[in-house]
Structure formats: structure tokens, C-alpha cells
Amino acid sequence: MDNTLPDAEALFADLKAQLASSIAFDAKLVGVFSGGAWLADRLKAELDGDHQVGYIDVSFYRDDLATNGLKSNVRSTHIPFSVEGAHIVIVDDVLFTGRSIRAAVNTLFDYGRPASVQLAVLVDRGGRELPIAADYVGVPLIVATDLMLALSKNDDGKFALTTEPWAAR
Asked: pLDDT by residue (tens digit) across 16-31?
């Protein structure tokens, strides 16, 4: 683990505290695969309220699909509740360019028109290419543009952050 990175468990605790004091009792959590899905699952388990969880894979909605191709880890989007009129919190691990979140919103609207959509991220690393901003942020963090910030989860469900070169993915 990179010692210069913040403790992901502490960031999760901060993010959870922000959400606990702000989101609707019945807000639906929609995690973006894979890191956002892990975070959404754990938030559901640890937040008070009646929070249902769904999952979005943005692979087919990305605007760079034609140039970058499809990744090998495509998963099925699964939203087991009605999006229509719901208060939704999209949960992701890292906000960078904003393109994955744009794709997540596009995917979400294929399922209905929510009353509201908010965004919660563990890390906001800046570098936006689209006008996307998170409502809840564990930490803003500057990371070199040639590095990818990755969230991992161990067998005990504990989170850790690491960096790796973009080419490694």
C-alpha cells in the first residue's frame, strides 16, 4: 500500500458521516461497479434508514467506448427498485474526469426519472472534463495524471487505496 495515500477506512467513515446527516431516510444507493458497488453495500449495512441498493455498469454508456473498447470485466446493471420519483445517491470510489458519472446518470435514466440524484465519492481527484461535482466527498486528493487511483477490498471487507500506472489496466 502507498503510504502517501490517505487511509481508505477513515475516508469511508467521513463519507458515511456526511451521508448519515444529509440523505433521505429512504434514499436509494446506486453503486458504480466495482468500487462504488462495494461502498454502496457497506453504506447500506452501516447507515440508518431504509436504503435499497442497486448497481450500475457504465461500460456500454461511456463516450470513449469506440476509441478504448470494452473492458473485460463487464457486469450487469441491476436496479431492483423503482427509480421513478426516488431519491438516488450514486456512489463511486473515485471521481476524476466525470465521464463515468455522466454514463451512470444516463444509465439511471433508462430506468426512470428520479426525484433527485446526488453523488457520493470516496475520493475526488480533480481533473474534470465535464461539469460534474460530488455532493459528498471523503477527500479531495491530487494524484499524478499518469496514475490510476484504485480502491481494493480485502476478505474482511476493509478498504485500501493504491496507485498504479494507467497502462496496467
From this structure: 999 999 999 999 999 9
CATH number of 8-64+72-165: 3.40.50.2020
Distances (CA, A) of 26 to 44, 114, 138, 151, 159: 11, 13, 22, 27, 25
- DSSP for residue 149: E
* pTM of the predicted model as reported, rounded to 2 decimal places: 0.90
* DSSP E strand stretches across the chain: 28-32, 53-56, 87-95, 116-124, 136-140, 147-153, 159-165
3-state SS class at 78? strand
Where do the domains of the chain lie?
8-64+72-165
Q: Residues 127-154: pLDDT tens digits?
A: 999 999 999 999 999 999 899 999 999 9
Q: How many CB atoms lie within 10 A of CB 25?
A: 10
